[in-house]
Amino acid sequence: MNNLTEQIRALAKQKNALILAHYYQSLDVQACADKVGDSFALAKYAKDTGAEIIILCGVRFMAESAKILSPNKTVYLPAPLAGCPMADMVTPDDVLLLRAEHPDAAVVCYVNSSAAVKAVSDVCCTSSSAVKIVNKTPGKNIIFVPDQNLGGYVAEQCPDKNIILFTGFCPTHHKISEQDILDAKAAHPDAVALVHPECRTEVRKHADYLGSTAGIINRAKELFAVGTRSFLIGTEIGVLEILQRDLPDAEVYSIGSTFTCPNMKKTTPEDILACLNGERGELTLDENESRMARLTLEKMVELGG
Ligand code: 13P
Ligand code: SF4
Asked: Which residues, judged by CB distance below 6 Å to any ligand atom, belong to the binding site of ligand 2?
């Protein structure tokens, strides 16, 4: 642990602050965290923690989710300009328009959405819970926002549902092409391809495993334990770096050139320190919007996701 990390850890303990970091954060930021996880684990931690201060090292929708679930806690987004371009692709008006066009449909929103979008949705989901949540949502017609790729995956996995897709996508995952995964498989024929469902359908169909960031990391470690030595990773570089660190005897390759979520990389340890020193403004939300969004997130938890 370097000096800055030690200083951050000591100050967090003193102030009863919980530092949460997504797997896409830099390894330096992850080293400062109490918990590193996928969106699902971070949302749950934020809800269950006894800490009074939550510092969410990720992008805006993650810190918003923590604030929605814990309105009385002080929540910080250490890099205030870290947004998620996919979350920004859908607005509450888009959802209301779709509702008017499909009045009998329920709205399932991916957690990668703003508090305002969650407020006009029926239930939220994460990449690891999307299939379960959609299956458990009553009715045949489901409007799924904003990710067309995760929504497409859900449609494949839930044949009894009619999924009405929105057109959003993650610019980072959307970059991987079918040729990229075919080339990677040809270059490493023994490797297992682990892919995030935010990738395009034509990439997903060549994957050996589809799952959230936590799902990919856990699956690679399970496979390593039973003898697999080579992995192709179809998600952001953070996951690749974690696997290269934790499985030094494995070969871990990116599918296509390594790709980065620029927003996830905006946070630095210095930003965390600034939050702990009271030099950053806390995240605030409209009270009514936050109350409505809470119902959507609580519904997700109630349905087991
Ligand atoms: P996970 O839910 O898999 O952590 O994904 C979040 C995300 O933003 C992926 O791009
Ligand atoms: Fe959003 Fe994509 Fe970055 Fe995830 S990787 S935070 S979906 S832009």
From this structure: 59, 84-86, 112, 170-173, 198, 236, 261, 263-264
Query: CA 12, CA 272: separation in Å to the nearest integer?
Result: 10
The fraction of the chain above a pLDDT of 90, given in percent, is 92
Is the domain of 122 the same as that of 162?
Answer: yes
One domain for residues 294 and 155: yes
Per residue in 9-59, pLDDT (tens digit) is 999 999 999 999 999 999 999 999 999 998 878 878 887 888 999 999 999
Q: Show the CA angle centred on residue 246, arms to residues 240 and 249, nearest 5°.
A: 95
Q: What angle (nearest 5°) sits at the alpha carbon of residue 293, between those of residues 288 and 294?
A: 100
Atom of ligand 1 nearest to the CA of 213: 3
CATH code at position 195: 3.40.50.10800
Position 259 in a domain: no
> What whole-number percentage of the chain has pLDDT above 70?
100
The tokens for 226 are: 């039973």
For residue 57, give its domain range.
3-82+264-283
- According to DSSP, the residues that pair with 232 across neighbouring strands are 193, 253
Are 164 and 211 found together in one domain? no
Q: Is the pLDDT of residue 304 over 90?
A: no
Q: Whose CA is nearest to atom 6 of ligand 1?
A: 39
- Encoded amino acid at 136, one letter: K
Are residues 245 and 103 located together in one domain of the fold? no
Give the count of domains, the chain.
3
